[in-house]
Amino acid sequence: MKILVTYAVQGEFTELKFPGLIGEEEVHIGYIRTGVGKVKSAYYVSEVLNQAKPDLVINVGTAGSIDCQVGDILVCRHFIDRDMQKLADMGLEYEIDSSALLVEKGYCTHWAGEGICNTGDVVDMEAFAQAFVCRVKNVPFIAVKYVTDIIGQNSVKHWEDKLADARKGLGEFFEQIGGAVK
């Protein structure tokens, strides 16, 4: 099994420790830093999907929130592009639910902490673009986000201050699930 782990900036990098085998399959994990923003993220993920052909993409990173507490871990299978949402009346797609393909493949179905990732040009800036590319390429996609800040409350400063906590919290999340993808 090939797993691609994506992250936007080096401060969000979290090494995933999966066991050597999932079922009867050996696990190979690749990492890609996509950079910040929807366009860069979509481009780099698309390139890696074409070359490496992973079985699963896991986006790991941080996000701001208005509804959750700093330190919460959110497992996102539902993605909204809030910039495109404003143009919904024109028929533009702005919502993706990646649950069906994850369930079909049997990946990450038991990961708890359900959240909706709302992507735009600020706050979370990559997940919707990655979910879109993965859906087009028929590759299961899931995002795991650590809430670093409450939107509108000095978010950038809080995000910078919480990056180390985010790496630790995300690492603990993946240790708790024990690398169980299936």
Task: Tell me about this structure.
By secondary structure, this protein is an alpha/beta fold. 32% of the residues lie in helices and 30% in strands. The protein has 5 helices and 9 strands; from the N terminus they run E-E-E-E-H-E-E-H-E-H-E-H-E-H. The strands form 2 sheets. Strands 1, 4, 5, 6, 7, 8 and 9 form a 7-stranded mixed β-sheet that branches. A two-stranded antiparallel sheet has the order 2-3. Helix 1 (38-52) runs parallel beside helix 4. The protein starts with a strand and ends in a 6-residue tail after the last helix.
Distinctive features:
182 residues, alpha/beta, seven-stranded mixed sheet, two-stranded antiparallel sheet, 5 helices, 32% helix, globular
